[in-house]
């Protein structure tokens, strides 16, 4: 992952790329923090009884991982001024010590004169996109990022 924000950004440039591992322990902790104790997020038997392939990560947890990538890259959570996604497919979390790898990457799609950068975020498990149409507007620290020459 990029350690700090570049002074000059180019359209198409991947500015951050990180793999996050999600385990059943993470799901339990997220359930406690969010108050979402739906058993499909922790009980294999219940998840399968309703036709799911297994225990699923909370959609909002997956979305939060993609935001974490941006806030780590920017160094300031308040720099993310707009964010939207569509949930495309569930993240199945195996009952083991490893969990599932969720890969998140952000690429520049627009650089504005007012210091705002538009990013496309890709979120995948294996070769499958789990979030689609993920876009963010971010205010760059120090104002105008400029385009790379």
TrEMBL record:
It comes from the Bacteria. Transmembrane segments: none annotated. Coiled coil: none annotated. Residues 15-111 form the MaoC-like domain. Pfam families: MaoC_dehydratas. Belongs to the enoyl-CoA hydratase/isomerase family. PANTHER family: (3R)-HYDROXYACYL-ACP DEHYDRATASE SUBUNIT HADB, 3-HYDROXYACYL-THIOESTER DEHYDRATASE HTDX-RELATED. This is Dehydratase.
């Amino acid at each position: 992952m990029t350690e700090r924000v570049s002074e000059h950004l180019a359209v198409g440039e991947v500015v951050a790329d990180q793999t996050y591992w999600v385990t059943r322990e993470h799901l339990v902790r997220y359930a406690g923090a969010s108050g979402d104790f739906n058993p499909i997020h922790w009980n294999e038997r219940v998840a399968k009884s309703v036709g799911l392939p297994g225990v699923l990560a909370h959609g909002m947890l997956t979305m939060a991982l993609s935001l974490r990538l941006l806030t780590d890259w920017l160094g300031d959570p308040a720099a993310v001024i707009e964010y939207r996604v569509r949930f495309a497919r569930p993240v199945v979390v195996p009952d083991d010590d490893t969990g599932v790898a969720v890969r998140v990457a952000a690429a520049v799609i627009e650089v504005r004169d007012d210091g705002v950068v538009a990013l496309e975020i890709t979120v995948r498990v294996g070769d499958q996109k789990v979030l689609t149409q993920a876009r963010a507007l971010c205010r760059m620290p120090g104002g105008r990022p400029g385009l790379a020459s």
